[in-house]
Write a structure and sequence with these properties.
3-stranded antiparallel β-sheet, 3 strands, mainly alpha, globular, about 190 residues, Arc Repressor Mutant, subunit A
Length: about 190
């Protein structure tokens, strides 16, 4: 999912690795923190695949991308035409990773560029993940009532169950809104 996140951000414009990491934290920070140890190998892989490239420099050899005082040797990256095509394909054909905790947040942040049918597939896939999680949590909460566990452990399990149920309600609202938006004749 880091590939999708990086391509999505570079679709907004060229960025240095430092700026990419900062934007990843701003956009996806509640989901996970991206280390330079995972970002730079991803950038090299995407560049090797021809999906991103070094942004052009001016005739003076300076980058056209502001460095924000982060040093002179920072290499800015930008999306290539192949990268734009790959991004569009990734958004149109979401993988099962788009339904996970990390993947869903990345894909959700790119919903404005995701085709309607793919948005609905992502939301429905996320709903299935949450329903399975909720059932596991219900089972654990029921089992815990009869076991000798800490009341705090039980409360933590109930919090997880409540969180899953709340997210399921939200997902169901988003699905209903998508279905209404995609098929307005259902409201007539």
């Amino acid at each position: 999912m880091l590939d999708l996140a990086v391509l999505g951000l570079l679709d907004e414009g060229p960025m240095h690795g430092y700026e990419l990491r900062k934007r990843l934290s701003e956009v996806y920070g509640t989901i996970r923190t991206v280390s330079f140890g995972s970002l730079y190998p991803t950038l090299r892989k995407l560049q090797g695949a021809g999906l991103i490239e070094a942004a052009p420099t001016s005739s003076s050899g300076k980058s056209r991308v502001p460095t924000a005082g982060r040093g002179k040797n920072k290499k800015p990256y930008r999306l290539t035409d192949a990268g734009r095509t790959e991004l569009a394909e990734m958004l149109a054909e979401p993988s099962a990773a788009s339904f996970t905790d990390d993947g869903f947040g990345v894909h959700l942040a790119l919903f404005d560029r995701t085709p309607a049918a793919a948005r609905l597939r992502v939301l429905e896939g996320r709903r299935r993940v949450l329903e399975a999680r909720r059932e596991e949590q219900r089972g654990a909460a029921g089992t815990e009532q009869h076991s000798e566990i800490s009341r705090y452990t039980r409360q933590f399990t109930l919090l997880g169950l409540e969180t899953s149920e709340r997210e399921l309600r939200w997902i169901n609202e988003l699905i209903a809104a998508e279905q209404t938006r995609n098929n307005p004749s259902q409201n007539a």
